[in-house]
């Protein structure tokens, strides 16, 4: 294992789906990243509820946010320790791990286009990921890289999505364009051109699993609609879909990004007020179409020449959703990232391992063509061991 040298990193990701923390132990010594070990730590129901509540203003939220950040660091540390144990069975020692890339938990995301008044300066934009990287460094004894988004935002960018550069390295092809769709709580699309032909493009399409999961939890008690089976029993409500898609976000051109700040349960309930007699399963079916439609529009608008859509994130396991994507994009092969070297739940965590590596090497992690930043920037703050 010694030939791996300084190329071992850990990536930690807890996304807007709020289901837990995913971690990967990655070897970057070869041409493609090799995942040595994976680990997941689910969030408790109480912690998930608190994180969700912190997406909106509330009582004593500064104290509660600090406490949640501390709790998240403890969860992250458990994931890291599990990864180190698994890595040890393959000859990887903790001393070989160069750094841990810890994304944190996004609770607010207000990029430039989302400022309350369009006349506000760019300095009004911000993004906030709950995290305590100093505590994580203490708990693990490893260097930690965190706060990846704020430098891009400070440079006039969206701060998101940050994975397209990693997607290009892992899934890009020299002779044909490829699309990568991450279906987490929010959906984001990467358009990867053939090598050196044009710039990589990426943007948030809209909601991903967030609203479907919330609606399923409310009406079935389950945290998500396994395989989309419940949605498949429903029928489309065209007027509701049209109302959902009427949001101004969908008319914005890239670069653009979004989050629960916009696509919240409160936003959904306001839309549903006009449909008091709708069956819950019909709403779930319509929410699935609401996820699919902007993704289809994004591919058709910016990647007409692509023949392959690689899907990662939890939504890749939603068979009904995948079928609807394939129906909307008959000209493409819609396939799980598992068929292309990385299982769906490893991709985003591996991206933050890569971003940590970029920071430790003093290399840029953003793509101005994706985020709209003024230029390439080294992303992340480093907390030494």
How do you describe this structure in short?
The chain is of the alpha/beta class. The protein is built from 13 helices and 13 strands.
Salient structural properties:
six-stranded mixed sheet, phosphotransferase activity, alcohol group as acceptor, ATP binding, 2 domains, Nucleotidyltransferase, domain 5, kinase, 385 residues, alpha/beta, single chain, five-stranded mixed sheet
- Evaluate the radius of gyration: 20 Å
Mean pLDDT: 94
| Terminal Cα span | 22 Å
CATH architecture of the largest domain: 2-Layer Sandwich
Q: How would you spell out the order of helices and strands?
A: EEEHHEEEHEHHEEEHHHHHEHEHHE
The main β sheet shows up as: 6 strands, mixed
What name does CATH use for the topology of the largest domain?
A: Nucleotidyltransferase, domain 5
The CATH top-level class label of the largest domain:
Alpha Beta
Q: Note poorly predicted spans.
A: 115-120
DSSP summary: helix tally: 13
Number of strands: 13
Q: Strand order across the biggest sheet?
A: 3-2-1-4-7-13
Give the overall shape.
globular
Count of domain modules: 2
Structural class determined from secondary elements = alpha/beta
- Share in helix: 25-40%
Beta-strand percentage?
15-25%
CATH superfamily of the largest domain: ATPase, nucleotide binding domain
Pathway: Cell wall biogenesis; peptidoglycan recycling; Amino-sugar metabolism; 1,6-anhydro-N-acetylmuramate degradation
Binding site for ATP: 15-22
Catalytic activity: 1,6-anhydro-N-acetyl-beta-muramate + ATP + H2O = N-acetyl-D-muramate 6-phosphate + ADP + H(+)
Keywords: ATP-binding, Carbohydrate metabolism, Kinase, Nucleotide-binding, Transferase
């Amino acid at each position: 294992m010694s030939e791996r040298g300084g190329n071992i990193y850990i990536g930690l990701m807890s996304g807007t789906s709020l289901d837990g923390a995913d971690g990967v132990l990655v070897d970057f010594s070869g041409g493609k990243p090799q995942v040595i070990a994976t680990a997941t730590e689910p969030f408790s129901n109480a912690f998930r509820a608190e994180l969700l509540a912190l997406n909106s203003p509330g009582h004593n939220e500064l104290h509660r946010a600090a406490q949640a950040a501390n709790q998240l660091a403890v969860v992250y540390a458990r994931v890291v320790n599990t990864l180190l144990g698994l890595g040890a069975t393959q000859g990887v020692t903790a001393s070989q791990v160069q750094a841990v890339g810890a994304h944190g938990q996004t609770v607010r995301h207000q990029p430039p286009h989302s400022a309350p008044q369009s006349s506000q300066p760019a300095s009004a934009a911000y993004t906030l990921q709950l995290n305590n990287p100093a505590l994580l460094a203490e708990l693990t004894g490893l260097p930690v890289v965190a706060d990846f988004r704020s430098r891009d935002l400070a440079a006039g960018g969206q701060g998101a999505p940050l994975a397209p550069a990693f997607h290009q390295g892992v899934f890009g092809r020299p002779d044909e364009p490829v699309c990568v769709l991450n279906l987490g709580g929010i959906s984001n699309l990467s358009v990867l051109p053939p090598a050196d032909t044009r710039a990589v493009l990426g943007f948030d399409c809209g909601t991903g699993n967030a609203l479907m999961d919330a609606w399923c939890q409310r009406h079935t008690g389950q945290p998500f609609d396994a395989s989309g089976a419940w949605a498949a029993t429903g029928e489309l409500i065209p007027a509701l879909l049209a109302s959902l898609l009427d949001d101004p976000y969908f008319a914005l051109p890239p670069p653009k990004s979004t989050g629960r700040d916009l696509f919240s349960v409160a936003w959904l309930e306001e839309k549903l007020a006009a449909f008091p007699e709708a069956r819950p399963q019909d709403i779930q079916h319509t929410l699935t179409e609401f996820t699919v439609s902007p993704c289809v529009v994004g591919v058709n608008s910016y990647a007409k020449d692509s023949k392959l859509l690689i899907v990662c994130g939890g939504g890749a396991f939603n068979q009904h959703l995948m079928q609807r994507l394939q129906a909307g994009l008959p000209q493409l092969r819609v396939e799980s990232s598992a068929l292309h070297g990385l299982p769906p739940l490893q991709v985003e965590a591996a991206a933050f391992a890569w971003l940590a590596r970029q920071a430790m090497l003093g290399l840029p992690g953003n793509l101005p063509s994706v985020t709209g930043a003024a230029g390439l920037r080294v992303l992340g703050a480093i907390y030494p061991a």
